[in-house]
Amino acid sequence: MTAPGTTTLNSVYPHAVVPLRDPGFPSASFQLLVPDRDLIVRYHLPASYPAVPPVVDATETGTHEAAFSKESAAAVLESVWAFNDPASESWLPDFVAALRSLYDDNSVEYDEDLNDLSRPEYIVDTADLSPEVTTAWATSRPLRDRRSTFIALARTGVASVPDADAALRALKADSHVAQAEHMAVAYRIRDSEGGIIEFFDNDGETAAGARLLHSLIAADAVNVVLAVPRWFGGILLGPVRFDHIHEVSQEALAKALQN
């Protein structure tokens, strides 16, 4: 199902909205990745839509958690809905614009006093990973920024959830991957009845796993596992870390899907 209102939005920001098949959310659920901002909103369309507005089910952000609770996003949607003609479906681009404005109004600089420069930088390259990892997974080039390193890994041909979990356990057993501060993961698996099982784990990197799942949905990738370890060197990067995660994950996913 295509989310109403996405034609205009996705023409400017491709794949900003993707359908969700997570059994933890209602049917006709969607995930909105607010463009150029550290914010994800999940919402669904009630059976009586458009007579009634969409319902916000969850939000994720790593920057302004107080400003972007589910309730605050719902309040933004309510105000936008009140000034739109539901039949025009212009509410979605307006909702995105309002969320971006609220995000900017709540922007704060990261406190450099929170950096831990005593923490040693962990230098790792793709070539350092074990042969068991590099033969089973498509890998990105390492992306380094201020003592953090990001490497993405994608694996296709994963036939079941137990297979996906086993692949991730084997990946985490690599001596270098085991040293990562976080490893966001996501997968999409087709079950025996033809349905799609979707899963993500942020592993402490707020909204990172959800963004990986967003990429898998946008690519219509099935039976694929995507992971991004981050080796943290003590300097907080702020929202730019999500750009890094996106960049390396797209590279690894593209390689995996070409094979």
From TrEMBL:
GO terms for biological process: GCN2-mediated signaling; regulation of translational initiation. InterPro entries: Impact (IPR023582), Impact_N (IPR001498), Impact_N_sf (IPR036956), Ribosomal_Su5_D2-typ_SF (IPR020568). Belongs to the IMPACT family. Pfam families: Impact_N. Residues 146-253 form the Impact N-terminal domain. Coiled coil: none annotated. Signal peptide: none annotated. It comes from the Eukaryota. This is Impact N-terminal domain-containing protein. PANTHER family: IMPACT-RELATED (PTHR16301), PROTEIN IMPACT (PTHR16301:SF25). One of its GO terms (cellular component) is cytoplasm. SUPFAM superfamilies: Ribosomal protein S5 domain 2-like (SSF54211).
